[in-house]
Structures are given as C-alpha cells and as structure tokens.
TrEMBL record:
<dbReference type="InterPro" id="IPR029018">
    <property type="entry name" value="Hex-like_dom2"/>
</dbReference>
<protein>
    <recommendedName>
        <fullName>Gylcosyl hydrolase 115 C-terminal domain-containing protein</fullName>
    </recommendedName>
</protein>
<dbReference type="Pfam" id="PF15979">
    <property type="entry name" value="Glyco_hydro_115"/>
</dbReference>
<dbReference type="InterPro" id="IPR031924">
    <property type="entry name" value="GH115"/>
</dbReference>
<dbReference type="GO" id="GO:0016787">
    <property type="term" value="F:hydrolase activity"/>
</dbReference>
<dbReference type="InterPro" id="IPR041437">
    <property type="entry name" value="GH115_C"/>
</dbReference>
<keyword id="KW-0175">Coiled coil</keyword>
<feature type="coiled-coil region">
    <location>
        <begin position="547"/>
        <end position="574"/>
    </location>
</feature>
<dbReference type="InterPro" id="IPR042301">
    <property type="entry name" value="GH115_sf"/>
</dbReference>
<dbReference type="Pfam" id="PF17829">
    <property type="entry name" value="GH115_C"/>
</dbReference>
<feature type="signal peptide">
    <location>
        <begin position="1"/>
        <end position="23"/>
    </location>
</feature>
<keyword id="KW-0378">Hydrolase</keyword>
<feature type="domain" description="Gylcosyl hydrolase 115 C-terminal">
    <location>
        <begin position="812"/>
        <end position="984"/>
    </location>
</feature>
<keyword id="KW-0732">Signal</keyword>
<dbReference type="GO" id="GO:0005975">
    <property type="term" value="P:carbohydrate metabolic process"/>
</dbReference>
Length: 987
C-alpha cells in the first residue's frame, strides 16, 4: 500500500515537472499574416505603462508594418501587461493560480514574463507581463521589443529594425530583477556644443531649448536601457529643468526619478536660477535666509514626484563653497548646518520623515576633503562617491560605511570639462577600465545610485549601455573578458553576427590607443590655465619611431572601419556611421593632424623636402574632420542631427588647424639618409660620422630598424641599396625621390639569422661591456651602400649573434641595448599568497592586459618579511649582458586607494634583494596626478643591483590588493626617453 502511494506520488511529481519544463518555453505569435495580437493595458495603469505599450506597438509596426491595438479589453491573442495591485486582469490570474507572483510582489523593479494558455474565457493565449511597480511593467513591455530584435538605440542611433512578415517569439518563463543597483541613470552635462543647440534649433525649436519634447526622447532611451534616473542638463546655455513646468510632469509620466549634480543642491540649478541682483550673494554664512527660501520653493514644487535630493552645498558652477572663515573646522560645521536645514525643509515640504526621503551627498573635489576631515553625515543619506573626472574612483566605502542605511553610489565620467584637459568630443574612456572601477564599487557596496556623466549622449552610446547594463545586473560581468562578450553581443545585435567579432576587435584597438593618450590630449596642451600646443613626448628617433607607429595604427583602424562599413546591411548603414565610422575617423584624424604636424616640424629641422608632404597630410586630416562633422550635422539622416556634433568643444588649441614648418629648397637634388636612434641625418661628407651605424641587431630579440631615404633640393634622385652581406635584409632596395609627393621613403632593415655566422660557443656572456662595443667574437659586422648618381653613403650593420649555452631554449626576457622591457602579464612564474593572488585583466593598459592583485578584500602587507611570507608574487626571468646598477621602473594603472588605510602599492626586487615598496597613490589634483591621468599611467622606480651578467629574476609582490601592474622596464643605462616603454625584449 505504501509502495503504491509512493509510486503515485512520484508519478505526479514527474508529470508536474514535465509540465513545468514545457511551460518554461512557449511560442507566442505577435504577427503572422493577417493574425495579430493586441496589447491589453487597463486605464488605471500608471502613465509609463501606457507609454511603454505604445512604444511596443510602434516597434511591432516598424518591423512588420502591422499596427497592434492597445486596448483595455480584448479577446483572442493578447499581450497582457499589468502592475500588481493596479490590474484586475493580473490579480484575477493570480487568484485563479494561472500565474504566481511571489517572486515579483513587493520587489523593486521586478517583472515576470510568461505565456499563459486560456487565461480567461475570451482570451485564447496571453503573453503575460507582470510588474512589481510601474517601471517594472514598462521594462517588461520593452523586454518584448528586445526579444523582437529592436535596439534600445533604434531612435537615438538610427538602428533601423529588420523587416519581418511574421513575428513569433520563443518565450521563456522568467523573472527579471531586482536590479543590482537601485537608481541607475545619466547626467546630461557640458551640453553647450551638441545636445542644447540640436534641441533648440533642430528637434524642439518651438521651445528653443532642451525642453519636454527632448526630455521625452531621453526618457524613452532610459526606459529601453532599464534606467530610472536623470540628472538634467544644467549649464548656463540651457534653461533650468524646472523653468519648464512640463518637464517634471514628463519625467513623472515616464517614471524617471529626477536628481541633480554635486553643484545643484535640493534640485536647484544654481547656474541658471540664482539671480544676484535680487537674491544677493550665494553664500550660506551670510545669506542663508534667502537660500533656504529658494530651497523651500523647490522642495514644495517637487514634493509630489519621485526625486533624489542632493544635500550639502558647493559654490556656483563647480567651485568651492564660499565661507567667511578660511579654516577646515568652520567649513565642515557650516556644511553640516546646511544639511540639517535642508532635511528640515524636506520633511516639512513632503510630510515625510527625512529618513524616508531619498537624498544624496556627493563628496566631489573639495567636498571630499570636508568629509575626510570629519563631517557628520546622517546615516540615511546616500554617500555618492566620484571618480577623479578621468575614470579613477577617488574613494569607496570602508567596512563601517558599507553598513550605512543610506547606502552608497557612484558618479562617474566618460566626458569632462576641466583641468588638466577636457575630453568632450569623443568617447575615449576604456570600457574595461569602467568595468573594473564599477565592479570594484559594487563589491564595496556602492549599489544605491550609479550616474554616468555622458555629455551629449552622442557619441557615448556603447559606454552608456555597458554602464547601465552593469547597473541592471552585475552577474554577467564577473571577469574582464565579460566586457568583450558584452561588446560582441552589442555589435551582433546592431550589425549582425557575421560582423560582431571584427567590430569588437576594432573597438578594442580604438580604446587601447585612446588609453595610451586620448585624442583630445594630442596637442600636449592643458587648460586652467589654457596653454598653447607643445612638443610631443612621443619619440621620433627611438624604438621604431612612436609617432609613425601611431600614425600607422590609426590609419589601419580607419581603413578597417571604412572596409566594414561596406559590409553592413543597408538598414544599418546610418547606425554604423554614427556608432563606428564617425568616432573612429574622428579619433584617427585628430591624431593624424597632430602626429603629421609633429613629423613636419621634426623633418623640417633636418631640412628634408618631405616637410611639405607631412604638412599637407596634417591639413588633410583637419579637413577630414571638418568634412565628416559637416556631413553628420547637415546631410546625414536627412538632417535629423543638425547641430548635434561639434568638432571643437570650447574651441581649445587641440582642435585648431596646425601650422606648417617649411624648409629652404636647395638648387641641386641630393640623396640623404637618417637612421633610427639618431637625431641628425647622416653626414656622408664627414668621415666616421657618428650617425652612420644602425643600432646593434640582437639575435635574441630579432630587432628591425628604420632608415629614412630622403632628398634635398629640386629635381629627382634615383637610389639603390646594396647590402654587403647576404644576411642583411632590406624592405626596399631601390627607389626614386622627387620634391613633390615622394621626397622620403622609409626602409626597414632586418637580419636573416639563419645566415649570420655564430659567435663563440661560451657558457657565459661577456661581463660588463658597453653594449655598443661588444667584443668582436660576439658581433658580426657588415654594411649597406646607398648609391645615387653622385653619392655613396655607407651604413654600418652589426649583428650580435653569440652562442651561449645558457640561452639555449631560454624562455625569459633578455637585455637589449642596455634595458629589459616586460609586459607585466607575461610573467615567467607566479605564486599565490596567503590570502591573495595575481590575476590578469584583458583589454586594458598599454600592453592590452594587466596583472591585478585580488581579492580586493585581502590584507595589505607593509612589513618586508610579511610581504615575502604572505604576499602573492610574479617572477620574471631575464638575462643581462651587463651588470651593475639598474633602475627598475614599474608602470601601473593610476587607480586610487579604496579608502583611508589602504594604498596602491607593490614591492619589487631583483634576485635575493629585499623587497622595495613602490607607492602609486597620488593626492588631490597634484602635478603628479595631472600627468598620470593625461597618460593613464603611474610610474615609480627603484635602484637595484645586478651583480653579474647572466640569468636573473625580477620579483613583484602585492602590497595592496587591487593594484594593477601594466609594464616594467629594467634600465641598465641604455634606455632613451620615450613616451611608452620600448617593446618587450622577450626571447
């Protein structure tokens, strides 16, 4: 009897389980032939649900040309959307046990989607969307649009949906939410050169500003990206958000929460709304009465809506608060009084306990100093940490702060106006860096508010989506490689699976180059105070010529984008231009403008006729930017985006056309040469010219070096290169020069190492020699003759090709020309520590990947013995041909300490020396910080002794978790100044 009951019980379970599996995935037909569903939304649903239903209907129409009815009653096949407690249809399904909502009810922004057969007597089949609140239901409706293949950027980036006759979805029963971050949104900032003129002159001329029509489009985008918060535009070029009464109503209609920046307390736009002639000075110590009246008015006006009130106070537009007493204690006490008064105003205006009203305190710039000096902040106020304006978060919640009831958030920049230099035109913030900083913030419990300063929205589209996708759900973003996966999925959705890998690789290269130096920083000038353009720190002499390398890298990037554009389907051509072509061509052309200008000045100093060619290339790059920007604004998409794109925000020197340097033209045409590693040309008239020998070729690193063949004078020169040994290889053996388009040719010299005679078979390298004076037994010498009609120039070639048994099958790094260069992620060996280990982050750093010490919760080690005993270590095997004092330079990503008591440190040593601690932390807006963020690199060094030529081991230990090591240079006296460390010298 018991056995039969058990069998029956298990049979029922099996049937239920099978039904459950079957119910998890169901086909649902939205449109097929003449059959189409309707969208069922009740009248009493919040306005945002009706808006989202119409958006979905519009999306269906854009795909199928079929218009779905949005109704409050329907039959047959329906998409049924409702909010728990707002919809009688949903409540009836729950009571009849057709759906369960225990995983949705009373949750924040949580929705569930499933197909229900015969939910009522008149409805045959329903695609049911049930939301825990108004935004959740709206997100659920727009989730259907995502399933149909509609991009969130359908309008904002013209991602035209693919046409389909039939729309049939395979729907998985699934619950979405609650989101990882409670409030998620964007800050429209520095809108003067794009969003504001576009709105005023193109999209909303009836308002003449960023008004309710523009905000409605912004809020549509936010809903599609499952965001819920806006910090409105606030510059003096734009009327204040609340000066248009309809703005706050539109925000509420779209269920968007309104907050304001660090400089706008209590939803007030000080820039536009504070009138000195009637309101007096904006300082709390002398004019608090008027300021409080101002706050009261705004609190009363906004009380009926969803808001996050910024508490505290700064000065007018991004300046410190004015106080009479110029001491920290007075500043802190006054700021505490401001917050106390603001909370009393909010309590009276809303009738709520202040602890129940969302408030944010943003310790930005000098306000962080006040907070660090002891400012007492109410427990329920959100602590919204900020980056340093260049992508590196200044501070995060310590263990005590992580327990605050108000929680914490992040205000992050991918666009910025200010010192040391703006970057307002293109999106140049590395997405893997943004992931690393936000993932770190999330780990340290900053989960209540994430705001991205994205400038004008365009061209920040991808990083906006990445930022908001992470804020919605951090689970898919566990590793650095998750960013590449996310980008591949983004590119696949926008431009097809067949193009997704190529586009992803294109963008990873775009961001790698921008990480080394943002396009807007290429004039080497600064702002506040504004300076003229300056000489570049990129070397044109050493390591293959950094300027020419960067020219070629950007040319390849541009060529790839233009080639891909031809392969994109017709309905995505406009989207590709906006999202890929324009930013890539813009970045490449701004780089080319300056790089060719630097090349022009460099060769002009040598009297080369090619100076005119490089000046022309610089001018062409400037004209290309003009052409593309004019097209974007005036021709593209039938003028939809007229005035949206400026090629020169703030009209800074970096955006101006460069000046050209000319050279005097000599009468007689003459062949000339310039070699890598020499500032001057070869003077063939002087015997034993110091610049007539190429740097030594090293068999262990397989070098190549360039020779520039150029001419001076009028006319034409034909030349030939004649190697004197069969092991010398040249990329070009002959050519013709003229003083028009072809006045310079770059040759590359390399070695066929299979043909070079071997040096002596030795156990060890020669000790302590000057690398350029290698004993004859280790160096093979020959030359190349360059011949023209009346000129012979001989260039010496030396190949270092010993046969050391120690280096047979060696896998480490090797000295070359007096240095060893290492990419930190390419360690020879690594060892875990007691509580931490070194891991690799891909897609960031000069080397394209970095080593990071994790977990971030690991204990910092400062004692030398504790470092050796407990810390994880990376080891790098290297071989030196010299010995003596060496300078070990370590390049890290310039992050900041998590919080007080933590640091950004590692320790290094060669062989058995004691670890030396290197500290990368900067403070405030120091000159060191300034240079670090311009270069996205922090470099520290220490002296070490290499006691003999031969094999050695460099060790790098973690001191603080989270430190990210990019590159290492061991300089034995041979390194010449360069912007980046030389390429790796790996066997």
């Amino acid at each position: 009897m018991f056995k039969n009951k058990c069998n029956t019980f298990f049979l029922v379970l099996i049937v239920l389980f099978a039904n459950a599996i079957k119910a998890q995935n169901s086909n649902f037909t939205i449109v097929s032939g003449k059959q189409k569903a309707s969208i069922l939304v009740e009248d009493k649903e919040p306005k945002v649900v009706h808006i989202a239903a119409k958006m979905l209907a519009d999306d269906v129409f854009s795909i199928s040309n079929q218009r779905l009815a949005v109704a409050k009653n329907s039959s047959g096949i329906v998409i049924m959307a409702g909010t728990i407690g707002q919809s009688k249809w949903i409540d009836a399904l729950v009571s009849k046990q057709k759906i369960t909502v225990t995983d949705v009810k009373d949750k924040w922004e949580t929705y569930k989607i499933q197909v229900v057969e015969n939910p009522t007597a008149t409805i045959k089949k329903a695609l049911v969307i049930v939301g825990s609140d108004r935004r959740a239901t709206a997100y659920g409706l727009l989730e259907i649009s995502r399933m149909m293949g509609v991009s969130p950027w359908e309008w904002w980036a013209d991602v035209t949906p693919d046409k389909k006759d039939d729309l049939v979805l395979n729907v998985e029963t699934k619950t979405y939410g609650s989101p990882s971050v409670k409030y998620r949104g964007i800050f429209l900032n520095d809108e003067d050169w794009g969003l504001q003129p576009w709105a005023a002159k193109t999209f909303e001329p009836e308002t003449g500003d960023i008004g309710p029509k523009t905000y409605a489009k912004v809020f549509e985008l936010l809903l599609r990206l499952r965001a819920n918060t806006i910090w409105p535009a606030m510059h003096k070029s734009t009327k204040a958000f609340y000066s248009f009464p309809k703005n706050k109503q539109v925000a509420d209609d779209y269920a968007i929460v309104v907050g304001t920046s660090h400089a706008e307390p209590m939803l007030s736009n000080i820039n536009a709304e504070w009138k000195h002639n009637t309101m007096g000075e904006y300082r709390y110590d002398t004019n608090s009465g008027v300021i409080k009246d101002f706050f009261r008015k705004r609190a009363k006006e906004t009380a009926p809506f969803e808001n996050i009130y910024t508490v505290g106070m700064r000065g007018e537009h991004d300046s410190p608060m004015i106080v009479g007493e110029d001491d920290s204690d007075s500043q802190v006490k006054l700021l505490e009084q401001v917050i106390t008064d603001q909370r009393a105003i909010l309590k009276k205006a809303t009738g709520k306990d202040a602890a129940k009203i969302p408030q944010a305190f943003i310790p930005y710039k000098e306000v962080l100093d006040y907070y660090q000096k002891g400012l007492q902040l109410p427990e329920d106020v959100q602590l919204v940490w900020t980056d340093d304006n260049y992508g590196y978060i200044r501070q995060l919640s310590n263990p005590k702060e992580q327990k605050r009831s108000g929680g914490a958030g992040i205000y992050y920049h991918t666009s910025y106006w200010g010192r040391p230099h703006d970057y307002l035109w293109l999106n140049s913030t590395n997405p893997v860096l943004m992931w690393e900083e936000m993932e770190k913030a999330y780990e340290f419990q900053s989960r209540d508010l994430w705001i991205l300063n994205c400038g004008d929205i365009k061209p920040h589209e991808y990083n906006i989506e990445l930022f908001l996708d992470m804020a919605w759900d951090m689970n898919p973003f566990a590793k650095s490689q998750s960013v590449k996966t996310h980008m591949q999925n983004w590119a696949s959705r926008e431009f097809g699976t067949q193009n997704s890998n190529s586009i992803t690789e294109l963008f990873f290269e775009y961001y790698r180059l921008a990480f080394q130096r943002r396009p807007e920083f290429m004039a080497w000038n600064q702002v506040e105070p504004e300076t003229k353009s300056k000489p570049t720190a990129l070397t044109q002499i050493h390591y293959g010529d950094e300027v020419s390398k960067r020219i070629d890298e950007y040319q390849n990037l541009m060529n790839t984008a233009e080639k891909l554009q031809k392969e994109i389907p017709a309905n995505r051509q406009n989207a590709f231009y906006e999202l890929v072509t324009y930013p890539v061509v813009g970045a490449a052309s701004l780089n080319h403008k300056w790089l060719y200008s630097y090349k022009n000045k460099f060769v002009a100093e040598q009297g080369r006729g090619s100076a005119a060619f490089f000046a022309k290339k610089s001018s062409e790059a400037f004209q290309r930017i003009q052409k593309e920007t004019n097209y974007f604004n005036n021709e593209f998409a039938n003028g939809k985006w007229k005035h949206i794109m400026s090629m020169s925000p703030r009209y800074l020197p970096v955006f101006a056309e460069t000046t050209a340097t000319t050279t005097a033209v000599e009468a007689k045409p003459e062949l000339k040469l310039a070699l890598e590693s020499y500032e001057m040309e070869v003077n063939h008239r002087t015997e034993n010219s110091y610049a007539d020998v190429l740097p030594v070729f090293n068999a262990y690193v397989k070098n190549q070096y360039y020779i520039d063949v150029f001419m001076k004078g009028e006319g034409q020169v034909s030349w030939q290169a004649k190697p004197k040994a069969d092991w010398i290889k040249i990329s070009q053996n002959q050519g013709t020069l003229d003083n028009k388009e072809n006045s310079q040719q770059r040759l590359w010299v390399s070695i066929d190492w299979t043909k070079v005679p071997k040096g002596e078979n030795q156990k060890e390298a020669p000790l302590g020699h000057d690398y350029q004076l290698i004993p004859p037994s280790y160096k093979v010498n020959s030359a190349i003759d360059f011949v023209s009609k009346d000129t012979l120039i001989t260039i010496g070639v030396s190949a270092f090709n010993p046969k050391f048994k120690e280096l047979e099958n060696y896998k480490g790094f090797v000295e070359d020309k007096g240095f060893v260069s290492i990419n930190a992620a390419n360690y020879s060996n690594k060892k875990s520590g007691k509580h931490a280990q070194w891991e690799t982050y891909e897609g960031i750093g000069y080397a394209g990947k970095v080593s990071v010490a994790l977990p971030r919760t690991a204990t910092s080690e400062m004692d030398v013995q504790a470092i050796k005993d407990n810390s994880p270590v990376m080891e790098y095997d290297f071989y030196s041909f010299n010995f003596g004092q060496a300078n070990v330079r370590v390049q890290a990503i310039p992050t900041h300490a998590f919080y007080d008591g933590k640091g950004v440190r590692c320790a290094v040593a060669i062989d058995d020396a004691e670890p030396v601690i290197l500290d990368f932390q900067t403070f405030g807006r120091s000159d060191e910080w300034l240079q670090n963020v311009l270069k996205n690199a922090a470099v520290k060094s220490t002296e070490q002794i290499i006691n003999k030529a031969g094999k050695h081991k460099l060790r790098i230990w973690m001191v603080d978790p989270g430190v990210m090591i990019d590159r290492v240079l061991i300089d034995l006296g041979g390194w010449k100044d360069s912007y980046a460390f030389p390429p790796e010298t790996k066997m």
